[in-house]
Amino acid sequence: MSKTYRIAVLGGDGTGPEVTREAVKVLRVAAQKFGFQLDLHDYDYGANRYLRTGEVLPANAADEMRQHDAILLGAIGHPDVKPGILEKGILLALRFALDQYINLRPVRLYPGVECPLKGKGPRDIDYVVVRENSGDVYTGAGGIMMKGSPHEVAMQNMVYTRAQVDRCLRWAFHYTRKYGKKARGRGEHNTLALVGKTNVLTFVFDLWERAFHEMGEREFPDIKRDYYHVDATCMWMVKSPEWFDVLVTANLFGDIITDLAAITQGGLGIAAGGNINPEGVSMFEPMGGSAPKYTGKNVINPLAAICAGMMMLEHLGEQKAANAINAAVSDVCLTKVKSLAAGKMGYGTIEVGDLVAERV
Ligand code: IPM
Ligand code: MN
For 218, which of 45, 131, 167, 209 is 20 to 30 Å away at the CA? Predict the structure, then answer.
């Protein structure tokens, strides 16, 4: 009996369903070739459901999702819905309810993809950001007082517990040991760098920094430790990205630096990430949004969604299938698509999906 994975498919809004369809196409081919089964379940969470029913997420959504081995998400966000409602009510709600406390965002430039950084190539842009995904300003702690008056006060607090920081760091250290540059034969060390702001955020990043060095010294003496301020990190990401191996950072900083990172790997057409609960159900998604203006035009790039599917298979332990998708995406980037931008690929969304699928 071959293995069967129960996958929840959340196409979402705008171009989300189109790119998800291509990812599913590629996953089905990989399943057939590498001998496992996919039991796919579609869910209509998103703007249309919200506009129809007034309900952002059904009350049993998290329990439904827990019945699966993994979740594949397209995109959330719609021009007719005020920003924040769907993002908070669906995406963040699921991340929190399922306690997906790691957001894993690989930054890899495929050969043949144009890099906006002068003189940089695939060997230079090859690192990973581990973004903490459960704390920080995302907890919503804070409030507004005296709203509407000239003395109005708004606060949104950066909140971290030691336990939250420790579980993220421990996962990041283990990840670095397994997938760092030394482990991949690309360097002398496996290096984990903490990205923070110890010069200003002297409470939160004091905690992070102490936890980082204490854990590193005690449990991971084989892993080299570095520290960068977040602002300097942005500079180095442009100037010398080849320095980086694995970066670990807090939620908001991770959100910001991974958009910058995505552009250096060719943009949101290719960047994917995983919201991981190592003990629970994880959710994989392209990093880009729903790109509503391209909806239904067969012009959006599905490679990011396909890469999200690849990360999902890797997470499920189907490494060979993931490698095959990786090689297929790499070949399509090198030999087929002219650009990763929507409408400029030289192929339609469906055709790019076909190109990858036939190479798997
Ligand atoms: C991301 C997104 C989300 C975030 C938004 C849509 C809530 O920007 O996944 O990076 O801030 O985490
Ligand atoms: Mn973001």
Answer: 131
Residue with tokens 């506009």: 51
Statement to judge: residues 99 and 129 lie in one domain: no
Residue 259 annotated as catalytic? yes
- We report the CATH number of the domain holding residue 309 as 3.40.718.10
Residue 193 has pLDDT above 90, yes or no: yes
> From the candidates 231, 239, 293, 320, which is the catalytic residue?
231
* 253 shares its domain with 119: yes
At residue 117, the 3 state secondary structure works out as: coil
How many angstroms does the Cα of residue 331 sit away from the middle of ligand 1?
29
Identify whether residues 122 and 259 lie together within a single domain: yes
Catalytic residue from among 25, 181, 197, 224: 197
Active site residue 124: no
Condensed to tens digits (0 to 9), the pLDDT of residues 326-347 reads: 999 999 999 999 999 999 999 9
Q: Whole-model pTM?
A: 0.97
Range of the domain at 140: 115-265
Residue 352 has pLDDT above 90, yes or no: yes
Pocket-forming residues, ligand 1, beta carbon under 6 Å: 87, 91-92, 255
- pLDDT tens across 114-144, in order? 999 999 999 999 999 999 999 999 999 999 9
Task: Quote the DSSP letter at residue 164.
Answer: H
Let me know if 231 is a catalytic residue: yes
Written as one string, the DSSP assignment of 232-298 is HHHHHHHH-GGG-SEEEE-HHHHHHHHHHHHHHTT-TTT-EEEEE-TTS-EEEEESS---GGGTTSS
- Nearest ligand to the CA of 76 is 1
Q: What was the pLDDT predicted at 1? A: 64
Q: Beta strand pairing status for 191-196 and 224-229? A: parallel
Residue labelled with tokens 């421990």: 170
